[in-house]
């Protein structure tokens, strides 16, 4: 097992895809489909790109769980990392989402698959905080260092600091929150567009953290265990160079290897010396997904990593995981525990 790089992922094969009008106001990376291009054509192009991502990851030796989504009211369902994360020790988190039309992306069948195929002990569901306007959009809002147990978080209305602290208490992470803005002063909507943390390398746009003290603290924390930093420019960030993810695959001969999955656009934006640093620890796997990137996310956003121990084939789950539902205001009270099926 690799703490940072999961060997399995969940992908959603969305039959309907368009840039979400409910998220355009605060997602500066989002763009409209080409003028005159129908929603059907956009969806078909995106579907081919989703299949290409699944095929490329399988070819790299990553275990891929694909779930079909034919619901035409979920334009962003291709991005499951915003509602789901999994963690060593059998822990799963379900998150509160900012856009109202994204909240029904959460799927019981995905959770059932995780419980049947992997060792799941506890599911903590924070989605009950949505009516109070409190959001934390998973590993979009947080970029997690699973090795040093740090949750790097760019502050925004999609990343409430109170539920961040609660998540960190529940899952054993240190919160490291900071402001991040582009050159026009617009806040970064999700941390995972400006930062990617691998086992031995991190890619991050440190210059987009305006506070020099906080910027230095992030740099120091990222490198304390010897991790190398690839500093990205804002231009590279706009090409989604920060929206990459380290995974653990296998060679055709069965040997374990680490890969850095990113889009072709992101790969092209990197300088040769930056690629050389990444390739000291990872093989770069890039996939061309220009249609999906219209929605303001890239390869990392498409991947919900599975950081759980696999259950032996044919072995039934010995018990029902505890489900802890958080549906109160974290400013005033603790959540309530609910044991039973989710």
From TrEMBL:
<protein>
    <submittedName>
        <fullName>Amidinotransferase</fullName>
    </submittedName>
</protein>
<dbReference type="Pfam" id="PF19420">
    <property type="entry name" value="DDAH_eukar"/>
</dbReference>
<dbReference type="InterPro" id="IPR014541">
    <property type="entry name" value="Amdntrnsf_FN0238"/>
</dbReference>
<feature type="region of interest" description="Disordered">
    <location>
        <begin position="311"/>
        <end position="342"/>
    </location>
</feature>
<feature type="compositionally biased region" description="Basic and acidic residues">
    <location>
        <begin position="325"/>
        <end position="342"/>
    </location>
</feature>
């Amino acid at each position: 097992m690799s703490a940072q790089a999961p060997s399995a992922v969940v992908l959603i094969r969305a039959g309907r895809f368009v840039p979400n009008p409910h998220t355009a106001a605060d997602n500066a990376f989002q763009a409209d489909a080409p003028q005159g291009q129908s929603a059907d054509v956009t969806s078909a192009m995106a579907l081919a790109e989703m299949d290409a991502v699944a095929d490329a990851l399988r070819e790299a030796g990553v275990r891929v769980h694909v779930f079909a989504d034919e619901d035409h009211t979920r334009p962003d369902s291709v991005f499951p990392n915003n509602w789901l994360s999994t963690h060593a020790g059998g822990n799963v988190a379900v998150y509160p989402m900012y856009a109202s039309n994204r909240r029904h992306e959460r799927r019981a069948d995905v959770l059932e698959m995780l419980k049947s195929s992997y060792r799941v002990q506890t599911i903590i569901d924070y989605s009950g905080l949505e009516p109070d306007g409190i959001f934390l959009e998973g590993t979009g809002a947080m970029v997690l260092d699973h090795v040093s147990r740090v949750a790097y978080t760019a502050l925004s209305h999609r990343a409430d600091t109170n539920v961040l602290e609660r998540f960190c208490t529940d899952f054993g992470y240190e919160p490291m929150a900071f402001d991040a803005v582009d050159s026009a002063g617009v806040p970064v909507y999700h941390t995972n567009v400006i930062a990617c943390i691998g086992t031995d390398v991190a890619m991050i746009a440190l210059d987009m953290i305006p506070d020099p003290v906080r910027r230095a603290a992030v740099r120091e924390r990222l490198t304390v265990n010897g991790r190398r930093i690839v500093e990205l420019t804002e231009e590279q960030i706009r090409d989604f160079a920060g929206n990459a993810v380290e995974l653990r695959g296998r060679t055709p001969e069965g040997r374990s290897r680490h890969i850095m999955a990113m889009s072709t656009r992101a790969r092209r934006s990197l300088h040769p010396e930056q690629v050389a640093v990444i390739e000291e620890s990872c093989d770069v796997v890039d996939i061309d997904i220009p249609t999906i990137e219209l929605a303001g996310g890239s390869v990392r956003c498409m991947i919900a990593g599975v950081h759980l121990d696999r259950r032996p084939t044919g072995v039934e789950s010995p018990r029902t995981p505890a489900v802890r539902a958080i549906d109160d205001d974290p400013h005033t009270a603790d959540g309530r525990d609910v044991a039973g099926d989710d």
